[in-house]
Write a structure and sequence with these properties.
- Helices cover 26% and strands 29% of the residues.
- By secondary structure, the chain is of the alpha+beta class.
- It has 2 domains: 12-238, Cation-dependent Mannose-6-phosphate Receptor, Chain A; 247-302.
- Strands 7-8-9-11-10 form a 5-stranded mixed β-sheet, with no helix packed on it.
- A hairpin with a 2-residue loop joins β8 and β9.
- The longest helix is centred in the C-terminal third of the chain and has 28 residues, at 247-274.
- The chain is elongated, with a radius of gyration of 32 Å.
- It starts with 8 loop residues before the first helix and ends in an 11-residue tail after the last helix.
Length: 318
């Protein structure tokens, strides 16, 4: 009997390499034998910048990023008001008219994400700044992430995020507590007005630019800067919960393994030489059986020593 071949199998196999490349462990981003844990930065983080001011209207671009997983689509949102599923970096352009108090979404741009059904993987590329060939980068501490997969109006999109070491902040001051990639209109309008002049605000996540890669390029590039202590190379060692095991931990492990090896080898030797069974299998079995009695006698002596002091001169009452 001849089996029917699935016509979609070749295309699925073609997507497998992209799936492997697109995934990365947010808990352990390893570059040049140096590991960075970016998992504390998980969740949506937003930054807003003003791109045009024509009174009474203000045009803003809000960029929302989740470096560890895809942004969640807000419940009840329309298809045109939120980035598609799989988006990691989403740009939403809004026009706020202060005259009639309106807030209109004009563009929804999926800048980076995993869109494997369209063969557009995230395909992250990481660079350790200290080992970068650029002289200006080599003087910094941190890492650079380059994320792909986005497309808007036929133009490719890309996000470049520089995670810079800053031991004074964890980098979560721009975290969003609401829906991912889209906010309620009134709340968003208030937030945009607060962030109208972003340069005056000391934010960990900063918008640098969003423009074509070059004048004749068909690719737009978003650049962000993210200051956080999790981009410091010694951050893992300074955190007790994620540091290496200490001397006493290794000492206990070695003692346990040595004791287990001694008991197993001794039991095997007693069984093969003397045909021992039960407690007789253990090396020094008699001593081990006497341990409870030895501990009981020792505890009695301790109690007697503690309670026997006083003015009796060591003699017990008759």
């Amino acid at each position: 009997m001849r089996m029917q071949q699935n016509p979609h199998l070749p295309s699925l196999l073609f997507l497998l390499p992209s799936l492997v490349v697109a995934s990365f462990d947010c808990h352990n981003v390893r570059i040049d034998r140096t590991s960075f844990d970016l998992s504390p930065l998980k969740g949506p983080h937003s930054v807003t910048t003003t791109i045009d001011t024509t009174p009474p209207s203000i045009k803003n671009l809000t960029v929302t990023i989740d470096v560890c997983r895809a942004l969640k689509k807000p419940k009840g949102s329309s298809k045109d008001d939120a980035c598609p599923s799989g988006t990691r970096v989403c740009g939403i352009e809004r026009t706020i008219n202060e005259g009639d108090n309106s807030n209109t979404i004009s563009k929804v741009i999926p800048i980076a994400g995993e869109f494997l059904h369209e063969n557009r993987p995230l395909d992250p590329h990481w660079t350790r700044l200290k080992s970068s060939p650029s002289h200006s980068d080599s003087e910094k501490e941190g890492l650079r992430g380059e994320f792909h997969g986005g497309k808007y109006n036929g133009r490719k999109q890309k996000a470049i995020v520089e995670f810079l070491c800053d031991s004074t902040t964890d980098g979560n001051d721009g975290a969003d507590e609401g829906d991912d990639g889209k906010d309620d209109g009134d709340a968003e309008e208030r937030r945009l007005r607060i962030r109208e002049d972003e340069k005056e605000k000391d934010s960990s996540l900063k918008f640098l630019s969003y423009k074509p890669l070059s004048p004749d390029s068909e690719e737009d590039v978003l650049r962000l800067e993210w200051r956080t202590k999790h981009a410091c190379e010694d951050e893992k060692n300074s955190d007790g919960s994620s540091g290496h095991w200490g001397f006493f931990t290794w000492f206990i492990i070695i003692v346990f393994l040595a004791t287990a090896t001694y008991l197993i080898f001794g039991s095997w030797l007693n069984y093969n030489r003397y045909g021992a069974r039960g407690w007789d299998l253990l090396p020094h079995g008699d001593t081990i059986r006497d341990v409870p009695y030895l501990l009981r006698d020792w505890s009695r002596r301790v109690v007697s020593t503690v309670q026997g002091g006083g003015s009796r001169g060591g003699y017990s009452a008759v």
